[in-house]
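Quick board copy: two proteins, each given as sequence then tokens.
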Amino acid sequence: MREPIRPDLPAARGRKLRMVWILPALFLAFAAAAQDKTELQGLYAAVGVLNQEQQAIFQQFQMLQDLRRSNDRIFYASQLRGPLGTTDVANYSDMVQYQRDVARRGEELAQQAEQLYAQYSEISARRALLQQRILELSAPQ
């Protein structure tokens, strides 16, 4: 009768030792992938929130632009005649005060528009950083 073939004991031990090192490495890789997936979900949610904020700011900016155009029309109309809706001949000092008020309102609206633009730009920069991180996590490794 033939003797059963037994694996070489030192070689079998070497394979087992390699498995001991490979299994934790695989576990860490799967854990890192799960963390990346969770981080990606959070990043996508954050980008969505920033998009909504940007959209709201853009709508406010558009409304301010309409107010500025309206104010400009009022200003130029007041150059030709007195304040809208009056039929009396306006007093010179009242006309000057009215024109100053319209000009001041125009400056305030321009300042508000600049602030909204700055907020919009800041959100764009933050969104770009988040999108860069998403690309880093999404890239095949």
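And the next:
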Amino acid sequence: MGIKLEELDGRYEIRSETSDGGPYRINGDGVTEVKDGRTYRKDQNGFIWESRFSISGKDKIMLESTLDPSLADEDFFIKDNKNNLTREKVTYKGELIVREERGRLVLRGEIKHGIVTTRITMTRINA
């Protein structure tokens, strides 16, 4: 397939599930827009996500996302790379595979952060 960064532009439905060594559980859903290899969104918990994409291979995208929980309710935390609860920004990195499924662009992969693994699927809903 081979993808260019500008071909990622569009709105995406996001689905993710997370495991910290046990069974996977639904972690988050939402919609984001990729523009010029970047996204910015606030999720249902009040966390701010800022992501950057870069091409890492023919059908591969590197994703680097910074999660900022500082504006969420005071009882909402995230885990740092040592599995400690924090309200500080944390950056996650992972590689996503690019595919076309049923006529839509789909980015799918895993992000490992300390003992936590998150499976993420981003499905483009419009260009």
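Board note added afterward: The chain has one domain: 5-126.
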